[in-house]
Specification:
This protein is mainly alpha-helical. The protein contains two helices and no strands. Helix content is about 75%, strand content about 0%.
Length: about 70
């Protein structure tokens, strides 16, 4: 029982770390690449690019455990 709880906690922390890193990379993409004209729906807004990065981080970090 304790081993299962420890493993689940480790997976949760790993997924959370992936979400945070993905969000930071999404914001970094907005800052470095960005779209100043506003024609790009993802990279023209820092909130949207951060959310997309966090979502991708979650999907990669979860590793199929949705």
């Amino acid at each position: 029982m304790r081993l299962a709880l420890a493993l689940e906690t480790k997976m949760t922390l790993s997924t959370l770390a992936s979400v945070v890193v993905g969000g930071a990379l999404g914001f970094g993409y907005y800052r470095l690449v960005g779209c100043s004209s506003g024609a790009c729906p993802i990279t023209s807004n820092p909130y949207i690019s951060t959310l997309y990065g966090a979502l991708l981080g979650y999907l990669i970090g979860a590793g199929g455990r949705l």
